[in-house]
Amino acid sequence: MPLKQVFTKEEIERAITRISHEIIENNKGVKGLAIVGIRTRGYVLAERIAKVINNLYGTKLEVGALDITFYRDDLSLVAEQPVIHNTEIDFDIENKNIVLVDDVLYTGRTIRCALDSLIDFGRPKTIQLAVLIDRGHRELPIRADYVGKNIPTSQKELVQVKFQETDSEDSVMIEESQDDKEENSKMGS
Description:
Blueprint: E1 3-7, H1 9-26, E2 33-38, H2 41-57, E3 62-66, H3 75-78, E4 97-105, H4 109-119, E5 126-134, E6 146-150, E7 158-162, H5 164-167, E8 171-175, H6 178-188
Parallel strand pairs: 2-3, 2-4, 4-5, 5-6
Antiparallel strand pairs: 1-8, 7-8
Helix pairs in contact: 1-2
């Protein structure tokens, strides 16, 4: 199935910078702020956002990694032997403004799992959501506070986010389903 690039390395960098500035502005600075990324690419994105904010403020934000595997409502559908990663939140989240970060927001179910998991660590003052891509198709009433780019997709399409740290490149691609390709060619003729 053909891939279509929707976000280049430079566009990803600009989106991360913009999101970082929006986080600072919404929180009136960095006091009491911490960032938690959902494994795997959400954590990479969280580290990048923290790096931009740290460079702007000369600070060192606390950054955590959250594994939501055991909180998923579709665990039996994901894999017979799901891969478990470490959750690394070695700071107190009590009364902090937490920015939860993921690469793609789709149905909202991943974020619901992340919220459940995060609350097990304490009671933050606020939980805000930052995503690189919002592709729509929500099944739960969840919305992002910070969005790199809204990309309308069909439910048959697959959004692939790649980061240098995990995939040796920075890009966002959409894998067009065969049904969508045939529909697009009919509309074009």
